[in-house]
Amino acid sequence: MRNLLKSGLRRLVTSAATQRPIGDRHATILAVAAQKGGVGKTTTSVSLASALARYHGKRVLLVDLDPQGHVTTALKAHVRPGGGLMSKVLTDDRSGLEVMDIVTSTDIENLDVTPFDPRLAEAEDLLSTRIGKEFILRDALKVTRSHYDVIVLDCPPNQGNLTLNGLCASDSVLIPCDPSPLALKGVEALVQTITAVASRLNPDIDVMGVLLTRVDGRNRSLNDTIESDIAERFGDAVLPMRIGINSSLAKAQVEGRDIFAFDESSRGAQQYRELSDAVAAAL
Ligand SMILES: Nc1ncnc2c1ncn2[C@@H]1O[C@H](COP(=O)(O)OP(=O)(O)OP(=O)(O)O)[C@@H](O)[C@H]1O
Ligand SMILES: [Mg+2]
C-alpha cells in the first residue's frame, strides 16, 4: 500500500523541481516585518536589497509578500516586465512552482524581485485551508535559495498567514519601528509571535534587530522618550544605526527608483548603506 502510494504520487506530481538546476549558493532569508503600517518596511526592504546588490556584490531576491504591491511601485523604473504570480506559488499545489519560477529581473545588477500580485489578498485567506500552511513559502524557496546570497521578504502590515509564512521561511527578522507608542506595541506583539514561531515552527529563526525608522531629528524629546522605552524593552536588539526622516526616500519611491539611483548622497542613502554594511558583515 505504502509503495503503491509512493509510486502513484511520483507519477501524479510532475516534479518541475527535479528539472530545476540546483545552484551553488545558500541564501540567508531575511524577513522585514512589523505589525504597524507605514513604519518603513518596504522602504527598508527595497533600500537594503538594492544596497546589498549594488555595493556588496550579493545576488539578491526581493520577495513582495504584501498584496499592496509596493515593492514593484517603489522600483517601477527598474523592474523588467515578466515574472508570475506569487499567489499561485502559495495556493496552487498542482502548479509545482518554486518562487524562482515567478521572479523578474531589474536593471540593478544582481537584483531580482517578485512582481506585484493583488491576488495575494485572496491567498492570505486561502492559505488557512492548506495543509502545512505555515511552510508553503519555505518549501517554495528550497531550490530558489540555492541561486541567491540573500532573500529579503517584504511582509504586509499584519500577522496573518503571509507574514507567518515569511517568519517560518526566514533565518532572521528585521523589525522597523518608528518612534511612536503604537509602533512599539506592534514590535512587542511581533516579538511574541517570533518567540512562538521559534519554539513551535522554526527553531532557527533569529531577530536581527529593531531598526528605528522615520526618526524626526527636530522632535528630540519624543524621540528620547520612545528610544529609551525601546532600549529598556529590547536592549541590545535595537540596532545602533537609525533611519531619519528624509524626503529623498519618499521622493525616490514616487519616482520608482531606489534611493541610490535617486540620490546617492542623500542622508537616507547613507543610512541605508550603513545598514547594508552591517547586514552584509553578518551574512
Ligand atoms: N525615513 C523616511 N523618511 C521619509 N519618508 C519615509 C521614510 N521611510 C518611509 N517613508 C515614506 O513613508 C511611507 C511609508 O513607508 P513604507 O511604505 O516603507 O512603509 P511600510 O511599513 O512598508 O507601509 P505598509 O505597512 O503600508 O506596507 C512611504 O510613503 C515612504 O516613502
Ligand atoms: Mg510596505
Structure description:
The protein has 13 helices and eight strands. It is 45% helix and 15% strand. It has a single domain (15-282), classed as P-loop containing nucleotide triphosphate hydrolases (Rossmann fold, 3-Layer(aba) Sandwich). By secondary structure, it is an alpha/beta fold. The protein is globular. The termini are far apart. Strands 3-4-2-5-1-6-7-8 form an eight-stranded mixed beta sheet, with helices on both faces. The structure holds adenosine-5'-triphosphate (ATP) and magnesium ion (MG). Adenosine-5'-triphosphate binds next to α3, β7 and α11.
Kindly summarize this structure in a few lines.
By secondary structure, the chain is of the alpha/beta class.
- Whole-number tally of structural domains: 1
CATH-scheme architecture: 3-Layer(aba) Sandwich
Radius of gyration over alpha carbons? 19 Å
**Main sheet makeup:** 8 strands, mixed
What's the structural blueprint in terms of helices and strands?
Elements: H1 2-12, H2 16-19, E1 28-32, H3 41-55, E2 60-64, H4 70-74, H5 86-91, E3 104-105, E4 111-113, H6 120-126, H7 136-140, E5 150-154, H8 161-169, E6 172-177, H9 181-200, E7 206-215, H10 220-234, E8 238-244, H11 247-255, H12 259-262, H13 267-282
Parallel strand pairs: 1-5, 1-6, 2-4, 2-5, 6-7, 7-8
Antiparallel strand pairs: 3-4
Helix pairs in contact: 3-13
Question: What structural keywords apply?
Answer:
single chain; 283 residues; Rossmann fold; eight-stranded mixed beta sheet; 13 helices; 45% helix; 15% strand; binds adenosine-5'-triphosphate; binds magnesium ion
